[in-house]
Amino acid sequence: MTDPETEKPGIRRPRINPHRERIVLAHGGGGQLTADLLREVVFPRFTNEWLDVADDSALLPTDGPIAFTTDAYVVQPIEFPGGDIGRLSVCGTVNDLAVAGADPKWLSLALILEEGLAIPTLERILDSAAAAAREADVAIVCGDTKVVPRGEVDEIYVTTSGVGTLRAGRELGFRRVRPGDAVLISGTIGDHGLAVMLQRQSDRSIRSELSSDVAPLSSLVADLLDAVPGVAFLRDPTRGGLAGVVADLAEGTGCRVTLDETRIPVRKETRYAAEMLGLDPLTVANEGKVVAVVRGDEADRARTALREHPLGRDAEVIGRIGPERDGTAELVTEVGGVRIVVRPYGEELPRIC
Amino acid sequence: MTDPETEKPGIRRPRINPHRERIVLAHGGGGQLTADLLREVVFPRFTNEWLDVADDSALLPTDGPIAFTTDAYVVQPIEFPGGDIGRLSVCGTVNDLAVAGADPKWLSLALILEEGLAIPTLERILDSAAAAAREADVAIVCGDTKVVPRGEVDEIYVTTSGVGTLRAGRELGFRRVRPGDAVLISGTIGDHGLAVMLQRQSDRSIRSELSSDVAPLSSLVADLLDAVPGVAFLRDPTRGGLAGVVADLAEGTGCRVTLDETRIPVRKETRYAAEMLGLDPLTVANEGKVVAVVRGDEADRARTALREHPLGRDAEVIGRIGPERDGTAELVTEVGGVRIVVRPYGEELPRIC
């Protein structure tokens, strides 16, 4: 390898001083500065046999069906209690693959950076993405970096795509759901969305210990699928919250889904923050929880399997699939009333993920 | 399927009036309005067996190694002579897969939309992406839509990832390049970058018929690989232009690469526009061209194969790999001088792709 400036093979002077420098437009130009940014700031954090080839495409050794997914992350602020946009972008995509019944394997990371972003900030985000990738046992194998002039993007947006391998006999989906099935959640709801919202208050009038639940769910899901082979349906309740997932479940299966409000785990801090902000935890995004539908007689086994995993300690059976064929989701409230659960109409919380 | 508003199964009132409406934050909230936007504006344009499942992950029937790539597109203006951000985002990702020797198959499309974007504009971009996908014979199988408040993104950014299948015996790369090999380009250089730059001039002082070359190269590359099985290396000269690719080629192989300026095809309009704007076509982005390295004695066959394809009519042999082991790229100029070709230092043209 030759450094084009010194023209002596094997000599590579570092060009970027990350403690001092900010992102400039030239870092996204595809020229020498882009190559320097990748070599000095990006690649060392994600080193693996596929990325290290440093070509535009990663060549990957699959030998059977795959799952493929993508998500754009625009969360604001980019760093929040419990996580940041780097961890979020890795976990969100890992979780989409896991709930499809796939083993997450390879991710891509496409960055859109604002001119002027401090390089130490970028480094923290990338470190966090790399740590989450190690935690989830996935490799970041390809990526892209664009820089746009100041004001044309807000700090940093990340789009992560993922590929996972599918095992035979792990078919999941609406059509596998049957009347009599049980609905479980792996833990407390609303923590991510409310932690981000609290962080956004300019006056910090509500103080809280609340932090985001953002975590990779692949090992929790694998444990559940090993313990309960008859899992019918899995979904991570992100944007739209638990309400969005159960509304989809009712619509997609045509069955009635009934939740028991007293069984839905909500942290005290989350409930308090939701009340202060006028939000319903049922519609708030989670980033480290999974909703599972299993056969009714496997509900206890599923709960036990979830609770044995550190990310599922608060797992609970929260509802059931009824015999009525009306595609309605309903919530039996704490006081014994019944209300219809609809997916939230629109954006209660812009830029929550 | 049940409409949660009417609560009558099978009845779906259209909710979006695309001729009147603009994107609002709620279209990105993961709730009812997001579902409406997907159902009425997005899905009908890309219908295929994988997307129509409408789950977060697409389940795909590979049975061997794959190539995986991603690119973020932030081009400004989003519509330009010869293309738009929709066509660009599909072609760019298809081309990255094609030059890796893969057959492009499946794409994901992640949109970050600015609040207030006119829905007819979004529809034109999506129509264009769908047309490019048909042209390239790929399916858009999954996606994501986020909306951010006005001013926090500029109209629309698209991140496209792609998966292609690899055929045995199609190994390409720096290490397959040998002294004596010939370097080819499939057509004229600089057209994309200069067409976009001309479109950006507020005063339109330079008038031109120039249009972007943005096109999917997969069938051109397939024809070349069929005709010339010994192709050593392929790359699409996007950001950084032809200069960036030959500098990479010299550095990556450790060989000397010599280009003959008189053989490099440049349109008259492109040369004129480059002179007016003070740019070197060698460093300007292309979006429908491929650089190929083949054995010296296969150069004519490769040129013929390229020229028989509509996208390769102006293909030319433009250089060779020399015996010198100095990793230098050089250009023999029209007047017989020699200059070193380095990758451009940074961003000559922000937001060109």
Structural account:
- The structure is a homodimer of 353-residue chains.
- The first copy, chain A, has 353 residues and is of the alpha+beta class.
- Chain A contains 8 helices and 14 strands.
- Chain A has 2 domains: 4-166, 60s Ribosomal Protein L30, Chain: A (2-Layer Sandwich), CATH 3.30.1330; 174-340, PurM-like C-terminal domain (Phosphoribosyl-aminoimidazole Synthetase, Chain A, domain 2), CATH 3.90.650.10.
- Chain A has helices at 32-46, 85-99, 119-136, 191-200, 218-227, 241-253, 268-277, 299-307; strands at residues 57-60, 66-73, 79-80, 83-84, 102-114, 139-148, 156-166, 182-185, 233-235, 257-260, 291-294, 316-321, 329-332, 338-340.
- A 7-stranded mixed β-sheet of chain A has the order 9-11-8-12-10-13-14.
- In chain A, a hairpin with a 2-residue loop joins strand 3 and strand 4 (83-84).
- Residues 1-11 of chain A have low confidence and may be disordered.
- Chains A and B meet through helix 1, strand 1, strand 2, helix 2 and strand 5 of A and helix 1, strand 1, strand 2, helix 2 and strand 5 of B.
- Strand 2 of chain A pairs antiparallel with strand 1 of chain B.
Index terms:
homodimer, 353 residues, alpha+beta, 60s Ribosomal Protein L30, Chain: A, Phosphoribosyl-aminoimidazole Synthetase, Chain A, domain 2, seven-stranded mixed beta sheet, four-stranded mixed beta sheet, 28% helix, disordered N terminus
List the helices and strands and how they pair.
The structure is a homodimer of 353-residue chains.
Chain A: H1 32-46, E1 57-60, E2 66-73, E3 79-80, E4 83-84, H2 85-99, E5 102-114, H3 119-136, E6 139-148, E7 156-166, E8 182-185, H4 191-200, H5 218-227, E9 233-235, H6 241-253, E10 257-260, H7 268-277, E11 291-294, H8 299-307, E12 316-321, E13 329-332, E14 338-340
Parallel strand pairs in A: 5-6, 10-13
Antiparallel strand pairs in A: 2-7, 3-4, 5-7, 8-11, 8-12, 9-11, 10-12, 13-14
Helix pairs in contact in A: 1-3, 2-3, 5-8
